[in-house]
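Recap from last week: sequence in, structure out.
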Amino acid sequence: MILNRLIYLIGVSSIAVGLLFGCSNTANVGSDEIENYSAKQIYDRAEYEMARSKPIDAIAFFSDVERLYPYSEWAKRSVIMQAFANHKAKQYKEARDAAERYIEYYPADEDSAYAQYIIALSYYDQIEDIGRDQEVTAKALQAFKKLIKNYPDSEYVKPAELKFDLAFDHLAGKEMEVGRYYLKRQQFPAAINRFRIVVEDYQTSSYTAEALHRLVEAYLSMGLVDEAQSAGAILGHNYQASAWYKRTFSLLRNEDLSPAVKGNGWLRKIHRQVLKGRWL
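Predicted structure tokens:
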């Protein structure tokens, strides 16, 4: 497995590999000189560079293995290691390119799962704060989902699921941020649209309880009492012990109202899902 191979990097003999290349760096090994070495020798030098935290130098040597010995087992290893080294160097596009190439060449190989994990990580590690565009977050989610679906028995599924949940929460947080912005400025329909997205599309996120409470606030502000009570009922069913429900209950009580499903809008559909155990 690739992880075992990476652990091995720490144990690479610096003296042996250093003597092989005269302890020279990548720039000092010319193209004519590199061709005098075997695939394994060049690959070992690449691992040596990785072991001393020089991924850029390592990438050059891994690339040489693939270029000079394209049909060897060392070339196969070099492709996945290029993905790993590029990710270490924060060259995310290059990491994805190498990982995608590995999956294309060796779709049934056990390290294809790791290649897919690198693709997902290359997006995940670029996720910005909630206030930025979230396109990369969506791509990370898609890549993690592909890993979980295509490699369900892989050792990378658990960390992928954890990072998927964090990225999922991140997208929900973006919708909440925009919704709060509109709510604060009394642009209630726009705020409701954002909170509805959280409730319908990000039900398992950590923001769902707040989204339901904000819906109560927005609907009451618009005089839409049935909708406010319905949102309160869903909140009470799922988060009765939460601070958000306590705030909602007080808000409704101040209007002589109580949580209850009313009307035939989209919230009634959500409530039916709750009762049938299809939600949360």
